[in-house]
Amino acid sequence: MSFCKLLSNQCYVYYDTIKPCCWYKGKGLSIFDAEEIQNHTERLANITDWIPECNYCHTLENSGVESPRLFWDKHPLFQNLDNDNDVVKIDLQLDNDCNAACLMCSGWNSSTWQQYNKKTIKNITSQFESNSTVTERIEAVKKIIDFSKVKQLHLFGGEPLRTNTHLKILKLIDTPELISLVYVTNGSEFPEDSTIELWKKFKHVFINISIDGIDEHFNYLRWPLQWNQVKENLLKYANLDTDNFTINITFTATPFNIHYQDTYINWSLDFFKDTNLNGSNFFTNPSPVGGIINMECVPENLQTIIKKKYSVDSKISKILRPFNPAKYKEFINYVELHDGYRKLSWRETFPEIVQYFEEAI
Question: In this structure, which CATH number among 3.60.40.10, 3.20.20.70, 3.40.50.300, 3.90.1150.10 belongs to the domain 88-250?
Answer without folding.
Answer: 3.20.20.70
